[in-house]
Amino acid sequence: MSRFFRPPRTMPRFMSRFRFMSRFRFFMLPIVPIVPIVPIAPIAQRSLISRAQAPAALALTALLAACAGQQAAISDARYDLGPQAVQAQQMQQAGAAPRGKPLLKVLDVSAPPPLDNDGIVYRMNADSQRAARYANSRWTMSPARLLTERLRTALGARATVLSGADAVPAPMLKIELTDFEQVFESPTQSHGVLAARATLMQGGKVLAQRDFVASAPATSPDAAGGARALQAASDDFTSQVSAWLGAQAFAGTP
Predict the structure, then answer these.
(1) CA distance 28 to 22
(2) What confidence tens digit (pLDDT) does each residue in 97-131 have?
(3) What global pTM score does this model have?
(4) Which end of the chain is more exposed for a tag (fewer CB within 10 A), N or C?
(5) What stretches of the chain adopt beta strand conformation (E)?
(6) ∠ CA 87-90-93 to the nearest 5 degrees?
(7) Do 216 and 234 contact (CB within 8 A), yes or no?
């Protein structure tokens, strides 16, 4: 039997596969990506760092809030022509009021559209044909309304002031405002200019008429300086109108 029977020279198929797989098992291992290890601060150390940064963060927050509040205040600057009581006292000291004060209707001051709003107008002398308004500063009301109140307060020292709506026969004073602006001669020098026409009427007739111009230097080349200059020009204007009315011969009642 041994003479005719020879063992097979090749291994069974399943044994050959096993040897092949065992030979290359190193190359068949799964590939794992290499991730760098970043050191992480301990929890206690991180808490100390956050506590150290907290005051700086609070200070920065407070500074930003203060800047925002200051910016809001700057962007909402409002100006008027100053206290009315001070002006009335100055007018009384300038001249004693007569015993029997005449009646006088002071109509609302009229103004063209560029002056019939709360914008503070300025003009550069180098470009006199172009007027502009301050972006972050305004009047509390239109210049025409401010001047109306100013006139009625000032003229109250010489006459019994009435409004145009009062149903009382009396002479009427009409004011037409033509200029109310800050004029710059240079980037650092400016002055406030007020120009207006006054008309005194009674019984549908014009008794007198005159053009007035008042000017005052500005203390600073900005909206605040322009507002103070226009306040001084308005006081000068009301004084001129008061003196002019005092020289007119008109009766308090027809």
Answers:
(1) 10
(2) 555 788 999 999 999 998 999 999 999 986 778 89
(3) 0.66
(4) N
(5) 77-79, 103-106, 119-124, 131-139, 160-162, 172-184, 190-202, 205-217
(6) 155
(7) no
